[in-house]
Structure formats: C-alpha cells, structure tokens
Amino acid sequence: MEIAYIPSPSQGVLHLGPIPLRGYAFCIIIGVFVAVWLGNKRWIARGGLPGTTADIAVWAVPFGLVGGRLYHVITDYELYFSEGRDWVDAFKIWEGGLGIWGAIALGAVGAWIGCRRRGIPLPAWADALAPGIVFAQAIGRWGNWFNQELYGKSTDLPWALKITSSTDGRVPGLYHPTFLYESLWCVGVGFLVIWADRRFKLGHGRAFALYVAAYCVGRFWIEYLRVDEAHHVLGMRLNNWTAIVVFLLAVVYLVLSARMRPGREEVVEPAAVASGEGDGEGAIEGDAVDLDKTESADAESADAEAPESDEDAEPSESKESKESAADEAESAKKS
Q1: Beta carbons within 10 angstroms of residue 197's beta carbon
Q2: CA 90, CA 80: separation in Å to the nearest integer?
Q3: Is the pLDDT assigned to residue 335 strictly greater than 70?
Q4: Is 233 helix (H, G, I), strand (E, B) or coil?
Q5: Which of 19, 21, 103, 190 could lock onto 134 through a cystine, CB 3.0 to 4.6 A?
Q6: Distances (CA, A) of 231 to 76, 150, 184
C-alpha cells in the first residue's frame, strides 16, 4: 500500500502562449540569482565593491553552462550520437543534462577572465562565492524533479519519489529521491562553509576547496543510489571516480595552501581601497595614516601660532615697564 510518497509534477513545462516556461530552466535561473546575491554580500563584507560579483558572474555563468553541458554530452555521448538519436538534442539544455564537474571547471575559467579584468585574485572571489554556488546547486537539483529524472533505486520509504512518466525507458514506480538527497546535502555544505569561514578565517581559496571536498563526499554515496544509465570504470560509476579524484585534489589544496599562505587576504579589491569604500584591513590602515597626517598638520599649525603670540607679548610688556620707570624718575627730580 502506498501510504506516503513525493509526487512528481504532471508536467515540467507550462506554455504562456507560444512561450514555454520550463521548471528546469527556472531552477537554474533562481539558483544563479541566489549565488550572485549571496556572493555579493560576502564580497562586500570582505572589502570588495558592490556589483563586482555580478560583473564577474557575467563571464563565469555562460562558461559554466557550456562546461556543464559539455561534460554531460561527452560522458553520455550515446544519448545524442548513437543510432536513432538526433545530435541536435545535444544543444537542448532546457531538457536537462548539466554536469557539475564541467560547470565548475569551465566556470572557473570564465571567473578567472572576469577577475583578471578587474585586478582581483580569483581565490578570494571563489571563497566569497562558494556558499552561494552550493546553494544554487541545491535549487538546481529540483529541476530534475520537474523532469522526472536522476532518481534512485526502488524503495517503499514514506519519502519515496513517485515516477509517473514512461518516456525514455522510465518505469513508473516509487524510487529514492536522489535529487532531494543531494539538494539537502548541498544546503548542509553551504552552512558548513559559512561557519568554517567565520570560525577559521579561511582565505586564498580554502573556503572554496572546503565546499568542493564536502560536496564530493555527499555526491559519492548519492551516486550509488542512482539507477540511470552511466559509464562504469572498475565496477564504479564514472561520477564516483570523478568525486574521488576531485575530493583528493581539494584536500591537497587545503593542506598546502594553509602551510604556504596562512591567514586571509587583507585586500581583495584594490579599487575598493583606493575609493575608500572597502572595509578591508588595507582601507582601515589607509584611513589611520590619513588621520595621523591630519593630526600632525593641526599640531604644527598650533605650534606655529603659539610662539608668534609669545614674542609679540614680550616686547609689549617690556616697553610699558620702561615708560613707567621713566615717569617715576622724572617725578622724583621735580620733587
């Protein structure tokens, strides 16, 4: 008996006249806005200028979408280039199919271009964006729910996902909602990075590396539950091997970075310090220097005026004393 389950939407697209409104696309768009909004707040708190995050995202987001799609098409090429398939479908990103590994890799290239144009260190910007990126992933996973895809093994748990579609080889039934598992895991990773960044003052890309490592741990066990077609290497899904390799790289970076560049960047955006809008330590030190100069100038001005008034007062008093003595001597003569 089906006591409880998570229902799937009857359709993943609504039509506003001739315009299709797809749930998958909306999830991606909302995720991007959340990442940029939160990243902007964290960037300003680190001493950057408002709007810098959005300017760099203009480069990072398109590169990330292309990278995510490329990874999916390359690792699942048989869906688009095998017999009976239409290769044009490889460009239909709205139908689902974005690999997070490719999105992060190529998105980092776009971010590097944007940071270089602004004279900003990429690791510092990545640290500010890390929680927003993983929250965006959490939102984006709900796009799989709209498309009824990437679910897990059969289950009778009360939070099972009910699949109703029978297209593309799907078998209607109750399955593990792996989209929900990964979404919740991503939310937890986002709060972990925010806490660790505040507690340990992570810098030089270590907050981003922590996000990558923590995400890979969750992605590894979630992959074991999925039943969609995937390439296997030595008995494991390709994404499991990718998670292992990326996890190790992130941990190595964390260790080496902490030893070679401890602490956090004092200045993340030189333009913010120059304009006086940055809140970083560099801006504070600059303000202190200006204050010292002002106080020194005031002191010099006061010292310059004080001696001048003393010199004027001394001759005046001496002249009056001499005139008084001369009057007394003349009176004495007359008497």
Answers
A1: 22
A2: 6
A3: no
A4: strand
A5: 190
A6: 8, 14, 26
Average pLDDT over residues 270-298: 54
Query: CB–CB of 93/65 below 8 Å?
Result: yes
Other residues' Cβ atoms within 10 Å of the Cβ of residue 174: 18
Helix (H, G, I), strand (E, B) or coil at 86: coil
Q: Report the alpha-carbon distance of residue 287 to residue 296 in Å, rounded.
A: 14
Tell me the residue type at 17. Answer: G
Taking all residues of the chain, what is their mean pLDDT, rounded to a whole number? 84
Angle at 322 between CA 319 and CA 324, to 5 degrees: 110
Instruction: Spell out the long-range contacts of 251-256 with Cβ–Cβ below 8 A and sequence spacing 24 or more.
Output: 251/209, 251/213, 253/205, 253/206, 253/209, 254/206, 254/209, 254/210, 254/213
Lowest mean pLDDT among 44-53, 141-150, 294-303: 294-303
Q: Which residues pair with 14 in a beta bridge?
A: 21
**Sequence letter at residue 76:** D
Residue 202 has pLDDT above 90, yes or no: yes
Environment class of 126 (CB within 10 Å of its CB; exposed 0-12, middle 13-18, buried 19+): buried
Q: How many CB atoms lie under 10 A from the CB of residue 55?
A: 14
Q: Tell me the one-letter amino acid at 202.
A: L
Q: Are 61 and 93 in contact (CB under 8 A)?
A: no
The least confident of 86-90, 158-162, 212-216, 330-334 is 330-334
Residue 307 has pLDDT above 80, yes or no: no
Q: Map tokens 């003393």 to a residue.
A: 310
**21 strand-pairing partners:** 14
Residue found under tokens 């970075």: 257
Per-residue exposure over 221-233, b if at least 16 CB sit within 10 Å of its own CB, e if not: ebbebbeeeeeee
